[in-house]
From TrEMBL:
Domain of life: Bacteria
Stretches assigned to coiled coil: none
PROSITE patterns in alphabetical order: GNAT (PS51186)
Descriptive protein name: N-acetyltransferase domain-containing protein
A GO molecular-function annotation: acyltransferase activity, transferring groups other than amino-acyl groups
Occurrences of domain N-acetyltransferase (ranges): 1-156
Length: 167
């Protein structure tokens, strides 16, 4: 795999973002936004909207919310890897954990994931996230109501997993 770069999302990146969100293997598992909503997030100082690049081309993006949380609790609001099954999702999650705990000094990193998104749930579990509970039938989708699983990682869990003794 080529080197992976993480950079702030720019206006010129929005076509990729919208296409990636609308892809058949992504859209069932997220709530896609329109371009104005992404622009609003990009301008919000409490949100990090980041592109993921590899081999000189965009391969995904992620959105973090709560950068200024007084409780030091950061939400991983969105992860989209345009190409599935080759490790970009895992690279994104690892970068998000590094940002959250090493760079931003957060205490908690959390997310919610659709209950039927088994691939993402397995990735998050394998990266040390703990399932905290379920938000039952909280989203109305095209085929009925959908539930979300809340998952999180705490700073001491990250530190224990990535301390020199852990290797």
């Amino acid at each position: 795999m080529n080197e992976v770069l993480f950079q702030p999302t720019m206006f010129d990146d929005l076509d990729f973002v919208l296409i990636a969100e609308g892809a058949p293997d992504s859209s069932p598992f997220i709530t896609p936004w329109d371009a104005p909503r992404h622009c609003q997030a990009m301008a919000d100082p409490d949100i990090a909207h980041r592109m993921v690049w590899s081999g000189g081309k965009p391969v995904g993006f992620f959105i973090l919310a709560g950068l200024s949380s007084p409780h030091r609790s950061l939400e991983l609001r969105r992860v989209v890897a345009a190409e599935k099954g080759i490790g970009f999702g895992r690279r994104i999650v690892r970068e998000v954990k590094r940002l959250a705990f090493t760079e931003l000094g957060m205490h908690r990193l959390w997310l919610d994931v659709k209950v039927d998104n088994g691939r993402a749930r397995q990735l998050y579990r394998s990266e040390g996230f703990i399932e905290e509970g379920m938000l039952r039938e909280c989203l109305e989708g095209p085929s009925g109501y959908e539930s979300l699983v809340v998952m999180s990682m705490l700073s001491h869990e990250f530190e224990a997993a990535y301390s020199p003794r852990a290797f």
